[in-house]
Amino acid sequence: MIKKNLLFITGLLLILTLFACSNDNQEADDSNSSDESTEEESGERTLEHAEGEVTVPENPENIVAPYLEDSMLALGVKPAAQWAIGEDVLDYLQPELEDVPTIEWDLPLEDTLSYDPDLIIFSSPSSIQNGSYEDYESIAPTFVYEDEIYADWREQLTQMGEILNKQDEAEEVLSDFDEKVEETKANTEDAIGDESVAFVWTMGEEFYVFEPDRYGAEVLYDEVGLTPPDFVEGLEQEEQWNPISMEKLGELDAEHVFVIAEENEPGLEILDESSVWQSTPAVENDQVYTMNDPSHWTIDGALAHEMTLDAVNEALTE
């Protein structure tokens, strides 16, 4: 009898334990479902980013995102304040941003707070320099790009689409851009073919040659299919994106050269007066094209690269 009672009690305890666990699991599931339902009802979304997770508004309206204005504008969204270093801004975006106030590149906390943002976006963890992530998170939900995503303009735009809940718009921007690439490819095949092309930027009295993976040159070499000259392929590591002397520039063997400079830039006069430059193949064959709006050539972004393609198309079809 005692043995039977022990077996009965043991079985009863096991049943009660299983029932309790089942209730706990159901409560946890109900809690998770409730959290998800609450998030959906409020319109908020939780995203993964460089600092972990952040819950962002469904359709943020007051956004501070320094140096990410290109991706925002491509999706039809204006920031509450635009990136600046002193009086320097992103010139190529000013037609759309001329009425938008500026904020210093390192986002001073008080200035950031004054714009009452409902979302703050940083281009990378290293761009947080005027406070801690927690400082900005206390002002508004703060999203931080991972370095490798920010560095790829297509991924940067796609990520911005997710942040702003404009994924469809981001896909459309990229699709339209690909069509422009094909248009440019057709134009360059007619005007340039397989002949080599280089891109030289002059600022002040200094000269820089774009490597194949530099800004708009990457799109033109990799996507449009232009051929870099041996000079560009042979640039040493220490020569990349450092000023190049006129003597070295005289070795440029490109058959076509796009010179990128503001109007009246001193470097343009130096080139005109240099016998070294005048003896390069592109100059001798009158195949030098001057681009007088360098601001979109020296940044990565959908709008910047679109303007670069437009400028190349215009130069080749004049």
Label this structure with key terms.
318 residues; alpha/beta; Rossmann fold; 2 domains; four-stranded mixed beta sheet; three-stranded parallel beta sheet; 11 strands; 48% helix; elongated; disordered N terminus
User: What string gives the helices and strands in order?
Assistant: HEEEHEHEHEHEHHHEEHHHEHHHEH
Which structural class do the helices and strands define? Answer: alpha/beta
Report the count of strand segments: 11
Strand order of the largest sheet: 9-8-10-11
Unreliable residue stretches: 1-18, 31-39
For the report, how would you describe the main beta sheet? 4 strands, mixed
Spatial separation of the terminal alpha carbons: 106 Å
Q: Specify the CATH class of the largest domain.
A: Alpha Beta
In DSSP terms (H or I, runs of 4 or more residues), the helix count works out at 15
Report helical residue fraction.
40-55%
The number of distinct structural domains comes to: 2
- What Rg do the Cα atoms give? 28 Å
Q: Enter the CATH topology name of the largest domain.
A: Rossmann fold
